[in-house]
Amino acid sequence: MGASPSEDAMRPSQSKSAPLNAARRSIIVNAPVERAYAQWARIEELPKFVTLLRNVRRIDDTQFSYTWGPNGEERRGVLQVVLQIPARRIAWRALSNELMSGVVSFERRSKADTEVTLKIRSTFDVANLSCRLEEYLGNFKQLIESKGQ
């Protein structure tokens, strides 16, 4: 049996000098931009919708430790938030493990709707990375919309 798509998505390229791949996906959520941003800004709660992350803990104002489970293994890492613009954007980079960085942007579509755009740069396979972004955004939509009821 082959690896599942979720395992493939987090499998880094085999080459030591693997190029960075990028993926970008957007979704409209039924939540005001301030609430959508506030949910994502609670970094410790990312495992609620970023399914491979576990045990996210604050180290200081900008750094967080985390564990994640690619390919059935548990690995540790440190994530640094490099930019926060309230109700607009959050950017981060991994300081350990596989090279990764990302940004999530929030754009008001109406008083009650927000477009959430997630961009990730990583050494992971681009096709599976795109599927992962869709999954995470779908999970986020379900979480944020269920909290609004």
Explain this structure.
With 149 residues, the chain is α+β, with helices and mostly antiparallel strands. The chain has one domain (21-147): Alpha-D-Glucose-1,6-Bisphosphate, Chain A, domain 4, CATH 3.30.530. It is 24% helix and 38% strand. It is built from three helices and seven strands; from the N terminus they run H-E-H-E-E-E-E-E-E-H. The protein has a seven-stranded antiparallel sheet with strand order 1-7-6-5-4-3-2, with helices on one face. Strand 2 and strand 3 form a beta hairpin. The longest helix has 22 residues, at 126-147. The termini are far apart. The model is unreliable at 1-16 (pLDDT under 50).
Give a short summary of the structure.
Strand 6 (100-108) and strand 7 form a beta hairpin. The protein has helices spanning 5-9, 33-41, 126-147; strands spanning 21-29, 53-58, 63-68, 75-85, 89-94, 100-108, 114-122.
